[in-house]
Design goal:
With about 425 residues, this protein is of the alpha/beta class. About 30% of the residues lie in helices and about 25% in strands. A hairpin with a 2-residue loop joins strand 4 and strand 5. It is globular, with a radius of gyration of 21 Å.
């Protein structure tokens, strides 16, 4: 198992290419199962989660080839419909094969998913979505067993306790593309990743309207064909590098990133004092003056993303003054606070609210990564901390950040990997 070593105190300067969006590429790869034809997906990031998804697809009997960031999927003739526990249990997004399998094979047996430990993330909305399409569902021995012989269009409201669900919207939308009749998804997620999936489905011949809104309408078709698609840039990776510019008092150009995908984060960083401007093929994040504390509340898109909460907390931990960070999506997503405290951060947790009092400096320390975004928060803290920071369990980072240490090194950071003893 690897650990990441960071010698803090280096100002980051330069240009960084933002990789393809993990949360867009995963359901898009799953959607290739909807056709018998070959599909070509480009700008696929080299991540552990992507490798897991390709293993699941291959396990179904599908031919998959990969060349760099290009993946070619040829599903012709595959007959399997089971996604096993040993693969699905390692990654929550693997549940997005459920919709395509139901639509194409009219039957699916998918293990309950796994992933980061950030509190309960139930799959009730996935079940609700497919049941609205006439699918018969039962749970046995840790598997979702679904029969879609009567797959038909239907109306469904995908409202959950913590708001909309990206993957439940994706699953319902994919299943509906080959259903008999029209499906209306109310309170659908409208994240850029959902829009990107819909754009790929449209290229395949699907009939979809409203996919950038909370009301998506899908008219089922008899078959879909293969298509080529270029995955959008990862807005969470882009946001993490914006915060890296802020916390190191740096100046970074983010190539390939789209400013309209990170509006809420840009709003808060601008309020804090970071200079953000559009540039050719991306945008620029530049430290120009002392930053101010701000208050944020995580909300479904286009609100402030929960996937940026931990990283933003690292910035506020070294920003003079008091900031308040409220987590409305996953109330238990504060495991990183104890690790930041080991580095000298002054943070008090009161229910869903983290009260952060900025300190003059953080001190490098051995810390433990608990999940993907908490790992990124510790990297940001390490970049600005005095002395050396050791981040253990960095396999979490490999699930969501492509070539992180290579990119940071090129920007001027002192960061490398070592084997844990």
């Amino acid at each position: 198992m690897d650990k990441l070593i960071i010698e803090g105190g280096q100002r980051l300067v330069g240009a960084v290419s933002i990789s393809g969006a993990k949360n867009a590429a995963l359901p898009i790869l799953a959607a290739t199962l909807l056709s018998d034809d070959k599909s070509i997906i480009r700008n696929v990031p080299a991540l552990r989660d992507m490798s897991t998804m390709l293993k699941i697809i291959r396990n179904l009997g599908v031919k998959v080839e990969q060349d760099g960031d290009e993946v070619i999927v040829e599903p012709k003739g595959y007959k399997k419909w089971k996604a096993p526990y040993d693969l699905v249990s390692t990654m929550r997004a693997s549940i997005c094969v459920l919709g395509p399998l139901l639509a194409k094979q009219r039957f699916a047996e998918v293990s309950f998913p796994g992933g980061c430990i950030i509190g309960p993330r139930p799959i009730d909305l996935h079940m609700k979505g497919i049941k609205a399409l006439g699918v018969k569902v039962k749970v046995e021995k840790g598997y979702i067993i679904a029969d879609a012989k009567g797959l038909r269009g239907g109306n469904v409201y995908l409202g959950g306790h913590f708001g909309t669900s990206v993957l439940a919207t994706a699953n319902t939308m994919m299943a509906a593309t080959l259903a008999n009749g029209v499906t209306v998804i109310e309170n659908a997620a409208c994240e850029p990743e959902v829009v990107d999936l819909a754009e790929f489905l449209l290229k395949m011949g699907a009939k979809i309207k409203g996919h950038s809104t909370h009301r998506i309408i899908i008219e089922g078709v008899k078959r879909l064909h293969g298509a080529e698609h270029y995955v959008i840039a990862d807005r969470i990776e882009a946001g993490t590098y914006m915060l890296a510019a802020a916390i190191t008092k740096g100046d970074l150009r983010l190539k390939g990133a789209r400013l309209e995908h990170v509006v809420a984060l840009v709003d808060k960083l601008t309020e804090s004092g970071l200079d953000i401007s559009e540039s050719t093929g991306g945008f620029r994040a530049r430290f120009i003056k002392k930053l101010r504390p701000v208050t944020i509340t995580t909300l479904p898109y286009p609100g402030f993303p929960t996937d940026m909460q931990a990283q933003f907390m690292s910035l506020m931990a070294v920003t003079e003054g008091i900031s308040v960070i409220t987590e409305k999506i996953y109330p238990e997503r504060f495991i990183h606070i104890s690790e930041l405290a080991r580095m000298g951060a002054d943070i008090i947790l009161e229910g869903p609210n983290a009260i952060v009092k900025g300190v003059k400096y953080l001190s490098g320390a051995p810390v433990m990564a608990s999940d993907l975004r908490a790992s990124a928060a510790l990297v940001l803290a390490g970049l600005v901390a005095r002395n050396r920071t050791e981040i253990n369990r960095v396999y979490h980072l490999d699930r969501g950040y492509e070539k992180l240490e290579d990119k940071l090194t090129k920007l001027g950071a002192r960061v490398w990997r070592e084997k844990e003893k």
